[in-house]
Amino acid sequence: MKVTGIETYICHAYRTNWVFVKVLTDVAGLYGIGEATLEHKEQTVAQACRELERVLVGKDPHRIEEFWHNAYRDSYWRGGPVLMSALSAIEMALWDIKGKDLGVPVYQLLGGKVRDAVPCYANGWFAPAKTPDEFAEKAKKAVAQGFKALKWDPFGASYLQIERHQLNEAMACVAAVYDAVKDSADIIIEGHGRFDIPSAVRIGHALGEFDILWFEEPIPPQNLEGLAEVKRRVNVPISAGERLYNRWDFRTLFELKAADFIQPDVSHAGGIMELKKIAAMAEAYHLPICPHNPIGPVANAATLQLAANLPNFYLLETMNSDVPWRAEITTEEVRFEDGKMLIPDKPGLGIDINVEAIKKYPYDPRELRHYKGTLTEIRPADAKSYFVK
Prior knowledge:
By secondary structure, the chain is α/β, with parallel strands linked by helices. The protein has 2 domains: 3-104, 2-Layer Sandwich (Enolase-like, domain 1), CATH 3.30.390.10; 108-347 and 370-388, Alpha-Beta Barrel (TIM Barrel), CATH 3.20.20. Helices cover 38% and strands 16% of the residues. The chain contains 14 helices and 13 strands. The chain has helices at residues 42-51, 53-56, 64-73, 81-102, 106-109, 132-145, 164-181, 197-207, 224-233, 247-255, 272-284, 297-309, 326-329, 355-358, and strands spanning 3-12, 17-25, 31-35, 117-123, 149-152, 186-190, 214-216, 238-240, 261-262, 316-319, 334-337, 340-342, 387-388. The strands form 2 sheets. Strands 4, 5, 6, 7, 8, 9, 10, 11, 12 and 13 form a 10-stranded mixed sheet that branches. A 3-stranded antiparallel sheet has the order 1-2-3. Helix 8 packs parallel to helix 9. The longest helix has 22 residues, at 81-102.
């Protein structure tokens, strides 16, 4: 069997555009699906995927480790979000081919299951809330859906520093959600890499009152030494990792003891096997893996295969709703019961894309909302649950 080509497809998804990859083979009907969604750089990463075609065409798709090593080695400018997202998507598509060819789910190729379902926390549940009371009501509805924890960024348009009135508004929102769900779910506070060290420490101390599960990315992701300092100075757990791009980045995070919860993204950090390696490193430090996973359906399918297999997998991030056409553009069947996503048992990643449907939702550029005060506009008005009843 040989790889014959790589195709990319970009699908508008309201807050971003999904980037899907199809790796073709010379076996009739056998191909693999991956996802390289890189918010606000979708066309760039799609081109990066196509450039990797010359590394892969003519090669045996079963030799995944060899492809990954050679593609990374021969990229003189190694690492970073564009290369690693392209490499991630193609790598997960190769696993999809391998699983389909052998007739087993990818998790079987990784060593088999350690669980049949994974507990989930919700992102996007708050849209389009603005006031603390509106957040509290949205939180109650999300918990009623079964989610074990809720994550959101309450910091408006703040950047680096936060004014007293902005901090008070953020803490009022946190307090309202905490009071609404404290007996039934945890709360997670997202920082989006916003703050300088003294501001992050100040916020961390304020959050100590609310028994949060973690404070995520309190400072910009490039400064892991600074993150370690924040972690030493606050009394709330810290999470990080969605903007680290391979095991070498994570090695530094572990050596600095800079985070309590580790959040690699399968579509940015090198793909399925790279996440397994990162998780094994985290396991040696007795740290839980909680992958960043708010993107698209194929990335979610790949993350579920890891959730099945990794002993230190703790919580799965997911959007509680999405664009109505999510069900139209893939064959995704996500089952959500008692606050957990069930691990599917279909061969490969267990998902396919509908190319003709994707063409109905062409690329539509979107800008970053984090510093404009519009974060709660993360879902369209007609968003709906994508879970199978």
